[in-house]
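Write out structure tokens for UPF0735 ACT domain-containing protein A6K76_00465.
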Amino acid sequence: MKDVANQRYYLVREDVLTDAMQKTLQAKHLLQTGAVASIWDAVKEVDLSRSAFYKYRDAVFPFHSIVQERILTVSLQIQDRKGTLAKLLETITDAHCNVLTIHQTIPIQGRANVTLSLDVTSMHGDLDDLLQSLKRLDFVEAAEVISSGAL
């Protein structure tokens, strides 16, 4: 299993991507534009296996889509202690992110799951900086990006 806590993101030229990664990007484009109705149709159109598509679909993105993305959804598992949500939100504010939504489960066995949707338009630093800041909080047991999209 991959160590999600230490994931880093890179910008690379298209010509160094594997064939499967490039075809995954093509298939995603076909799906986004409505040129095909299903993943099956998309992978068939670009001559890619479905397993390769699923392997890379959440890992490769065109540069323009990353630049336009301004909403980030982060899932965290936190220890249930007094003041943890306030400290968590302070860290988000310090990164110049705006909280759009907060969902917190009822704590069970001293732990709760918190899902935050953030407007990261004015974020200071990059995604790795934000995730590392959240993971450094002593009450955060796990933090990961679960989705991103445009405003």
